[in-house]
Amino acid sequence: MAVPKKRTSGSKKRIRNHVWRAKTVKVASKAFSSAQSVLTGRSKSFLYITNEKVSGTN
For this protein, what is any one GO molecular function term (predicted)? Predict the structure, then answer.
């Protein structure tokens, strides 16, 4: 017969929630930093397509 698990304490729940939120803040910060470098034209870590026309092609 199935037995219910013990209840998770409030402090454990808050710790887990804080860790989860800290990870999302870190990822969002990296994404924002990458976007800034692309917009300013200083990005050297990856290639991306621009809308500039290449001269010499028709």
Answer: structural constituent of ribosome
